[in-house]
Amino acid sequence: MKLASLLLLAIALAAPERAGAAAPGSPRDEITYGVHTTVVPVWFDPADTTIGSSFLVLYALHDALVKPVAGKPMAPSLAESWTASPDGLVYEFVLRRGVKFHNGDPVTPEDVKFSFERYRGVFASTLKERVTAVEIPDPRRVRFRLKQPWPDFMTFYGTTTTSASWVVPKKYVEKVGDDGFKKAPVGAGPYRFVSFNPGIELVVEAFDQYWRKTPEVKRLVLRVIPDPATRLAALKRGEVDVVYSMPGEFGEEVKRAGLTLKGVYPSLHWLSFPDQFDPKSPWQDRRVRLAANLAIDRQAMNQARTFGLSKVTSTIVPGAVDFSWPPPSPVYDPAKARALLAEAGYANGFDAGDYYCDMTSSDAAEMMVGYLQAVGIRSRLRPIERAAFNKSIAEKKLKNLVQVIGTTTGNAATRISEFVVTGGMFSYGGYPDLDGLFREQAGELDRTKRQATLHRIQQLMHERAMFAPIYELAFLNGVGGRVEEPGFGLIPSYAFSAPYEDVKLKRK
Question: Is the pLDDT of residue 298 over 60?
Fold first, then answer.
């Protein structure tokens, strides 16, 4: 895999330099993205969002009552405002006047209620267990009633932690069905669906009645190019205008070609030990998990992949989110790692089985496998396409070692609920004391007390070496000479280009 990538890079470097050129015949009002992972139809439907990559499409086709926008982690969108009752039991949203879906139907409170009730993503049960009713008091208002005060309702509903507030047209979905909707999605976003060629590209076109403003660029093309060297070559030749994920030598070449390298911090990466709850597994022993942590040279990985721009860490909770606990700096000590393995009864190491990863991070996973091998933990790399990888984690199918990518959304509680507590969407087990502390903080309205409890949970996670955190990744992207505003970093901690209506091409 690595050899093939390097060979393709050599071809890319030999390609003629056309940094600012557009491909012959390409329209000036069209922008093409070289996407690093497969675009799948499930991303066309907000009801089915389970991973952050879905928003790559959602921000084009759809809109939400409340969502992150440029400079704001949570802001009114289809709703012009919202209020919460003093007792924390009622949230009410007022819809904007005159907002329409792409088929001309008005956006109504019935669509909002329908979309929430239809949502079946990662946190569907979390939301629906706590919301006792969705009411429509008049043609412009929607009211959510909670069973009990829940401090994180808006974190789950109004950020990219979920897509439950993203609205689809009730009448259209009921007419065409779920499968029909994925084939021809209709939304209320800045771009309307034009065509989709599976494994090749998605094409969308500006919706001139979008409530915020008509998009600057008429047409967007999301072209699937999984190999980074091929993406780089396409960018240099002007076949695409923006490419996602340019790590290591590819990022260096972007700069050498006179193109722009843009970095954002959308995700935190770590190694998960799903078998730590199995009494027969070596990973149940804290010493083995700690040895794996000490075996990783995070600074070297950071330098090799992102020129030292990533933020090495020893927690799976992003430092920028609410209630995060600042952990001690990670330590690289392979000698101590080997000593801990010997103390645990593995003086000659052991076969850890398969090491699973998202295929877009296979270069980092190769380094991780090498560090573990150096102290005696032997494994075999198994890259999986992103959608299948995340589905397999959610279905608890991946064992042994799993390299996880977690987006930097929500707060400490949302991250813990996903990956730490018993019954979490991506957790393979849990510890009774951590589960108890999590339940304790969930209904705590005193912010100081809640923070103390969440900090204690994170401290115990660290002491038990439940995970082997790596870094908050500097996600590096290449931008061609035709682009004036690529949209990177406009939305805090968001991985991709957005808001799409703010993306601009240079005008001659």
Answer: yes
Kindly tell me the burial class for residue 335, based on how many C-beta atoms sit within 10 Å of its own C-beta (0-12, 13-18, 19 or more). Answer: exposed
β-bridge mates for residue 260, sequence order = 479
Q: Residue type at 119?
A: Y
How far apart, in whole angstroms, are the C-alpha atoms of residue 456 and residue 91? 30
Q: Model confidence over 440-486: pLDDT tens digits? A: 998 788 899 999 999 999 999 999 999 999 999 888 999 999 999 99
Whether 146 has a pLDDT exceeding 70, the answer reads yes
Span of 5-19, 168-182, 354-368, 433-447 with lowest mean pLDDT: 5-19
Computed on alpha carbons and rounded to an integer, the radius of gyration of the chain in Å comes to 23
Rounded CA-CA distance 248/452 in Å is 39
The torsion of the CA quartet 486, 487, 488, 493, rounded to 10 degrees, works out to -170
pLDDT, residue 28, reads: 62
DSSP letters for 141-204? EEEEEESS--TTHHHHHSSTT--TTEE--HHHHHHHHHHHHHHS---SSSEEEEEEETTTEEEE
pTM over cut 0.85:
no
Would you tell me how many other CB atoms lie within 10 Å of the CB of residue 245? Answer: 22
Helix 248-256 / helix 2-14 crossing angle, nearest 10 deg = 0
Residue 111: is its pLDDT beyond 60? Answer: yes
DSSP bridge pairs for 477:
262
Average pLDDT value for the chain? 91
Handedness of CA 188, 153, 386, 13 (dihedral sign): positive
What dihedral do alpha carbons 337, 343, 348, 354 form, nearest 10°? -60
Domains of the chain as residue ranges with CATH = 2-36+190-259+480-505 (3.40.190.10), 47-55+62-172 (3.90.76.10), 266-473 (3.10.105.10)
Ordered DSSP codes for 76-102: ESSEEEEEE-TTS-EEEEEEPTT-B-T
Amino acid at 36: H
